[in-house]
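Example complex used in Figure S2.
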Amino acid sequence: MEINIAKDFSITPGCRHIKDGPFSGEAFRKEKLEPLFESNLSEKIVINLDGVEGYSTAFLEEAFGGLVRLLGKEIVKKRLEFISTEEPFLINEINNYMEKAIR
Amino acid sequence: MKNVYRAEKHKHFNQLRSDKALLARSSQIKKIHAFGYRICSSTSFVIKDRTIVIAPENFSIINNMEGFLKFISKIDIPAWHGKDVYINLSEVKKITPDGLLILIAYLNRYKSCNPTPKIGGNSPKEEYCHQVFSESGFYKYVVSSYKHHNSNNVLSVRSDELVRSDEAGAVIEFVRQKFKITDRTLTRAVYTTIMEAMNNVREHAYGDRKNFGWWLMALPEQEENVIHFALADNGRGIPKTIRKKLSEKLPFMENDAKLIRATVLEQNRSSTKLPYRGLGLPTMKKLVDKKKIRNLNIISSKGGYLIDVDKTYDLNKEYFGTMISWDFIKE
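Predicted assembly (434 residues):
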């Protein structure tokens, strides 16, 4: 299963919370990520980060760090994989957010 | 018959004569035919209850901090008390987006004044500056007969209360068209910087106060591969909103510029106290370190911080809000 953020969500990812603006990290998590964790417990989810205008730290932290706060680090890290050919350092950054996410 | 005045009246007429002499010396003032004026200083005076404020030649807070803040304060004092102000822009010869945005942010503050002052003005004589004021949409924010002209030379001022990633995307489109860039990765740093700046305004600038939002503008340098950006708000200012250490709370240790620097260099200074927050300004610094953006300058309350050269500075007058400016250079 692959989610391409640019194609499946928005080319202009936004802020942290839904109330603060369009295409937020919270909206991405709720609309795209959480349903996949509810439906199938074993399938790998590949997140393609390429093709967007850019990311704010708040978007990435809330989408992936927020998922860890919701479901736990082990479950999330076991299933999520990332592709970023345009900016490979983003993968480290996201892993860092997931490591530091606390409930 | 010769009039004989009492001492007070004599003093009054003497003052009036010296005011007239000063008026005559100022080329900006010569054209104004009115009675009952009162001069406040060489850069502002009052005619029929309306304060006339003369804008500085260098209309920029980053290049003319003292002159520009003085100019803003000349507007701020009467306007805040509901008095009408006329801004004389005719002598403006240089302009950067930070100056224009700060003025717009201040004008927005006066909407809540009772009575609401009428702010009007004229246009710079210098052709390029006239074009910038006109195409930026500045005249929408004041009482003016000048019309807004769209062009591809200036990105008109954008504003909102929310974090508008679509607006940030439109700015990036402008940059790509201007520099004829097709590779998205080259402009990502600008997008991220805009988003971080908008996020900071939304989450921290206004607190419980009514959210007046942010103002954003981009201005390409003439005949150079540089675009200047600025994003301003009129919120509480970074020094008042960050989580302070005990030593920073002591009155004699308080320094706004150092507090701004600490917010940039140390993560997690967010007032939310959550360890995964307060990442915005440190992220901007990373982009400067990678030379993706240049000349990143933060001005807030009574201090400023130039990130590229790690230099803090104090402001001679308080700026009520935060202004972040930076440059994008096409290599």
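Chain B touches chain A at residues 162-166, 168-169, 172, 184-185, 187-192, 195-196, 198-199, 202-203, 275-276, 279-280, 283 (CB under 8 Å). Chain B has eleven helices and twelve strands.
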